[in-house]
Amino acid sequence: MAEYSALPLFTDSWVADTAHLARAERGLYLDLLVLMWRSPDCRVPRDMDWIGRKLRVSEDEKIMLESLLSEFCQTDGNFYFQKRLKKEFMFVRNKRKKQSVAAKSRWDKEKDPSKRNAGRHSIRNAPSPSPTYTPLPPTGGSLETVVLECGRRAGINLTSPGHITKAMDIVRDWIDVGADPDRDIYPVIAERVARTSDTIASLKYFDAAVRQKVAKASTSPSGYQVATKDPATSPKFSVTWTAEQQKIYFDRISREEWESLIWRFREYGRWETQLHGHRLPGEDGCAAPEDLLRKYGYLAKEAVA
């Protein structure tokens, strides 16, 4: 497995340096660069048989391979490497190392210092700690702060730069759809953590639940939102739906459309027709067909006689 999965490729340099090569030569050269990038320290042994087996070249292609190594690569006597590729490899390695150190530093700053020395207790008489949650003092509302707090509450170790970036994307999407950390995100995490004994590896585990909570909060207390136009701009077109008009509208939604809506709500927490006024799946009075609600787990299954 490669130490770094993404290989930077600057197209201007690639075209300028390989314009004189035939298409087959360019393909073999790219395979060679990928092999170097995926090898330890971005280099390959100075062994033509080893390189040939890795690249699966034929006897005729070995002459082409030797020419490419001679033209584009350097050697220290034991290994082949490509100077520009090695430079990019070291840049990525140093950048990852700095990000890791910065992330660890942020975590260390947020940890409370130990008030007692646990070393004085023997193994047998040390008190059994009670798992209690102590909320952190408010430290600001930045996205990074919210992400780290989500990870802490969910028991997810967000030390890897890649994990932090993915977590920030997830939380940013939650906030974009109207989620509030204190009102929506943190309560959902606490509820789901209490309900599962599984190890949670990503904030994606809470995605559907957070979106459902935001969708439910956006409905009116009665479960209906009145479909109206702004009287300031269209005073003659203010509309209020009666229960009969709502029923007529819902009856026009096909069974396939209902099933698609319920599936999207379960997977993504989105309920497109809530703007037209009916309750969400799992709530009393939802206008979706009962058998579909039961199929997707929003109603208890009927007892078999």
Helix-strand layout with pairing:
Layout: H1 11-18, H2 23-38, E1 44-45, H3 48-55, H4 59-72, E2 74-75, E3 79-81, H5 83-110, H6 143-154, H7 161-176, H8 181-195, H9 207-217, H10 243-251, H11 255-268, H12 290-295
Antiparallel strand pairs: 1-3, 2-3
Helix pairs in contact: 6-7, 6-8, 8-9, 9-11
Per DSSP E runs of 2 or more residues, the count of β-strands stands at 3
Outline, from the CA principal axes? elongated
User: End-to-end distance, in Å?
Assistant: 56 Å
Q: Tell me the radius of gyration.
A: 30 Å
Q: Characterize the largest beta sheet: strand count, sense, and whether it forms a barrel.
A: 3 strands, antiparallel
Helix content: 40-55%
Average pLDDT taken over every residue: 76
Portion in strands: under 5%
Strand order of the largest sheet: 1-3-2
* Structural category: mainly alpha
CATH topology of the domain at 11-86: Arc Repressor Mutant, subunit A
What's the order of the H and E elements? HHEHHEEHHHHHHHH
Unreliable residue stretches: 130-140, 220-240
Q: How many DSSP H or I helices?
A: 12
CATH class of the domain at 11-86: Mainly Alpha
CATH architecture term of the domain at 11-86: Orthogonal Bundle
Structure description:
Helices cover 51% and strands 2% of the residues. By secondary structure, the protein is an all-alpha fold. It has a 3-stranded antiparallel β-sheet. A hairpin with a 3-residue loop joins strand 2 and strand 3 (79-81). The longest helix is centred in the N-terminal third of the chain and has 28 residues, at 83-110. Residues 130-140 and 220-240 have low confidence and may be disordered.
